[in-house]
Amino acid sequence: MKTAIKLILALITMNIQSQTQASLHYLVREPKVKTQHPPVVLLLHGVGSNEKDLFSFANSFPDNFLVLSARGPLTLDPDRYAWFHVDFGSGKPVINFNEQENSRKLISRFIGEMKTKYDFDDKNVFLFGFSQGGIMSYSVSLTHPGLIKAIAVMSGRLLPEIKPLVPDTEKLEDLSIFISHGTEDNVLGIDYAREAKSWLESKHLTPNYHEYTAAHKIIPQMLKDMLEWLTKTSH
Question: What is the model's pTM?
Fold first, then answer.
């Protein structure tokens, strides 16, 4: 009995180490329908949240998807994390760009680590980010053409600091983008979504764009519309 208990504890410890030894701590929902190289969606939470937040939607994604939910590398308080620090003292968000750059590189590295571990289809990589996670979705996908197939940005914004880093390349035109934002958002106003849409269109991208009567949160209709888009885009 003691040997069996030791074996179980060893396996649990091994699983925890496999997750903490990655560039980012994460939660995983493996595909319910097994395929050789599944599509993958990486969930990126907002500032002050954690990997459990968006993971609550994990079972809403198609059964053939590998679902990963990553934790931001910066600890704000117990169980509260971020991708970078942001100051709203001036009335507009002022970010720590170096922290953002570090997180941008960590996410890209993490995707490579997960590819090695789970052998997903690297032509079907999706990012789903809320608020600061949406910001990171823009930053990663636009600066790494070809790495990401599609992003869903919920209540986020496109950093002006990232725009000069975006290369002019035909590969960027293959990126599919879903944008949803609440018109009553008093954290990141609706103008951020509209500005991002206009800038992306200037780069010959055509976002699937949606506005909702909502505050700074994900409402059921947002999730429904995003999942319908994702299902079509993944085929």
Answer: 0.90
